[in-house]
Design a protein that fits this description.
heterodimer; A: alpha/beta; Rossmann fold; nine-stranded mixed beta sheet; two-stranded antiparallel ribbon; 13 strands; globular; B: alpha/beta; two-stranded antiparallel sheet; 17 helices; 15 strands; 45% helix; 19% strand; nucleotide-binding (chain A); four-way junction DNA binding (chain A); DNA_recomb/repair_RecA-like (chain A); ATP-dependent DNA damage sensor activity (chain A)
């Protein structure tokens, strides 16, 4: 403990000395006052933040407490939430890929609605940004999912007999109002939008999720120079990463699939190539397993690789029917 | 917006000049290289580059709309809240009212299943006057397979909407609204697309039909270059649909599945060897949609028309607003008719496979009726 303190003081002193070295001309009494102040503030900081050796750095211990309080956005499918450790995590970039019609856009819309579940119900009460590159965003569908979500919430409120006032606040139109929709028509616009989002989110602080549906479409069409494509994609991914950390929001990127020749046969793999596969924190692959839709955690630094079934119903993403049967049987 | 000139973005003159001096003229030029490369190229500091790019980005980036605005705008300003009803009740219900405006809807199916019949009906529906539930507009019909038969169009019109088509001059009026292009190659089609764009912007075009995209694209050299040209076309057609807010219907052919076609991810192969058996089972009799997986991702709605054990089915195999459903249908003199309006929900591989069994017997019976 003592050692720690002294090291902190030196750290503070060092800074002052460095300042003195440049241009600061103060009498010694004042200097010691300043030093005292510096050491005090650093001690005060020490309770919340550990001694930073340089700006922006953080110790693993400090990160631990932060990680423990990472808010999650539920997917409305309990099995899926379970393998994801509660849902889509804020401050992380998650990539979701799968064959056409597997339900990528559905998950995207569901998340855009679910991020708005009020805090009283265990949600985030946030807003969503939906970036549509493919033109597959259907307001009719958002309305269906929003209505179902409100129904579920009022059922929950009824069971718990509290938070009656929330009922009034949650109206399908409010949910639609809180989804900011951007239609992107070229990769240039996509890059421009990512650059602009920093400003946009600063002005709309309650945005808690950004959904990019899909990251692939324009980057798949308009490039001859693949190396340049990779550079632009990785720059874009880094910007998304920065957004997610800076504003504590979840970024979900939807990706398409392509075929690749692996081990003597053609197999499915997510698009945009191998170097792209390093970009996202988590990677989830959606696939068909016989008659059921499954999600598989292909890559994640914190979650173990697992798969869970889900289904796309008229009310949105839900547990698959067979798994609910299984639970009933037990 | 991507081609906006940098010196029109309101960027400070001095840095705009540096961009111009390095031949970076449009926003696209500036955003197509990374900020680091730009720094090197322009020989200015990172802070200047970042703020310049932030400025350009803000000007170029698309406007923000709330989902609520989108919905209200559609309800207030568009016919039938942005849908072209197919008059097939079950299908319309599943699609929240019909073929959506501003999106790409694909019809896939084997030859002779009824894709063109469906397209003919749709073009009539779009040209009908509003009091009959139509869009009262022109239709552009790209007929790449030379399958558009005007006689059949009139027949469908007479049988489906007798009250209109029996009026004097109305058949001529309706048929006169349908404009047919017959490109013989993809490049010819590409050229005509630019004319079509102008037509759509100038006139009251309410529907674009491309019958079929496969016929156009498969005539090209196969491989990566085809995928790229196809990609360009998808992008162009989609943005056309989007900006003019009209429905676009594209038909696609089928091909048989070749050998061990990719349908598993590496982790699935590792998980079980049973996967291989599945593959073998799939190999025998199924058809898949042509034009590949990238195209399949690009279409917003995919309707599969198929025949199974003497019945024809129309399947909603990809749709952002409906679970996968199958409806039985038949073709008679008034076009496609659904046999029941309650769809059967599909699961698993059934959603995407295209059956074509028992078609011959069925076809001869229906064929006699037709003639």
């Amino acid at each position: 403990m003592e050692k720690k303190e002294s090291s902190r003081q030196i750290c503070g002193k060092d800074r002052i000395i460095a300042l003195e070295g440049t241009d600061l001309d103060v009498p010694e009494s004042k200097a010691s006052e300043i030093l005292k102040y510096v050491s005090q503030t650093s001690r005060m900081d020490g309770s919340s933040r550990s001694p930073a050796t340089f700006d922006g750095a953080q110790t693993a211990w400090a990160m631990l407490s932060e990680e423990n309080f990472l808010p999650c956005i539920t997917t409305s499918c309990l099995d899926l939430d379970n393998i994801l450790g509660g849902g889509m995590r804020c401050r992380e970039v998650t990539e979701i890929g799968g064959v056409p019609g597997i339900g990528k856009t559905q998950i995207g819309i569901q998340l855009a609605v679910n991020v708005q579940i009020p805090i009283e119900y265990g949600g985030l009460g946030g807003q969503a940004i939906y970036i549509d590159t493919e033109g597959s965003f259907m307001v009719e569908r958002v309305l269906q999912i929003a209505e179902a979500c409100i129904e579920d919430l009022s059922e929950y409120a009824h069971l718990h007999k509290d938070a009656q006032d929330c009922k009034v606040k949650m109206h399908p139109n409010n949910i639609l109002q809180n989804i900011f929709y951007f239609r992107v028509c070229s990769y240039t616009e996509q890059i421009a939008l990512v650059n602009y989002l920093d400003k946009f989110v600063t002005e709309h602080k309650s945005v808690k999720i950004i959904i990019l549906d899909s990251v692939t479409f324009h980057f798949r069409q308009e490039f001859d120079d693949m190396a340049r494509r990779t550079r632009l994609l990785s720059e874009m991914a880094l910007k998304f990463m920065r957004l997610s950390k800076k504003f504590g929001l979840a970024v979900v990127m939807l990706n398409q699939v392509t075929t690749k020749f692996i081990d003597g046969s053609f197999q499915l793999t997510l698009a945009l190539g191998d170097s792209w596969s390093h970009m996202c924190t988590n990677r989830i692959i959606l696939y068909w397993n016989n008659n059921e839709r499954y999600a598989f955690i292909d890559k994640s630094p914190s979650l173990k690789s697992a798969s869970a079934s889900y289904s796309v119903t008229s009310r949105g993403i839900r547990n698959s029917s067979s798994s609910s049967k299984r639970i009933k049987m037990m | 917006m991507a081609n906006k000139l940098i010196n029109e973005t309101g960027l400070p003159k001095w840095i705009a000049n540096i961009f111009a001096a390095r031949n970076i003229i449009t926003a696209k030029d500036a955003l197509s290289i990374t900020e680091f490369e730009l720094m090197e190229l322009l020989d200015v500091g990172l802070a200047e580059v970042t703020s310049a790019i932030a400025h350009i980005s803000e000007v170029v980036c698309p406007p923000c709309q709330t989902a609520l605005y989108l919905m209200e705008h559609r309800v207030q300003h568009e016919n039938l809240a942005g849908h072209l009803p197919t008059r097939l009740k079950g299908l319309d219900d599943a699609l929240c009212g019909g073929i959506p405006f501003g999106a790409l809807t694909e019809l896939v199916g084997p030859a002779g299943i009824g894709k063109t019949q469906f397209c003919l009906k749709l073009s009539l529906l779009a040209s009908l006057p509003p009091q009959c539930g139509g869009l009262d507009g022109r239709v552009i019909y790209i007929d790449a397979e030379s399958k558009f038969i005007s006689k059949r169009l009139i027949e469908i019109g007479l049988k489906s909407f007798p009250e209109i088509f029996h009026k004097k001059g109305m058949a001529q009026e309706m048929a006169g609204r349908i404009l047919i292009f017959r490109p013989t190659s993809l490049s010819e089609f590409t050229e005509s697309l630019h004319q079509i764009k102008l037509l759509i912007l100038q006139q009251q075009v309410k529907l674009l039909i491309i019958d079929s995209m496969a016929a156009l694209a498969l005539g090209e050299e196969s491989g990566a270059s085809r995928q790229q040209t196809l990609g360009w076309h998808v992008s162009f057609i989609k943005s056309l649909a989007e900006f003019s807010r009209i429905p676009v219907v594209v038909t696609n052919q089928v091909r048989s599945q070749i050998g061990y076609e990719a349908c598993l991810y590496p982790f699935q192969v590792a998980q079980s060897d049973a996967g291989k058996k599945d593959n073998a089972a799939r190999y025998d009799s199924h058809l898949v949609a042509a034009l590949g997986i990238s195209w399949a991702h690009a279409v917003t709605i995919r309707l599969v028309l198929e025949a199974k054990s003497g019945q024809r089915f129309i399947k909603l195999s990809k749709s952002p607003m409906s679970p996968p459903l199958a409806f039985r249908f038949k073709i008679n003199s008034s076009g496609i008719v659904l046999l029941d309006n309650i769809g059967m929900e599909l699961k698993g591989p059934d959603i995407n496979t295209i059956h074509f069994q028992g078609q011959n017997t069925l076809f001869s019976v229906e064929g006699e009726k037709l003639q």
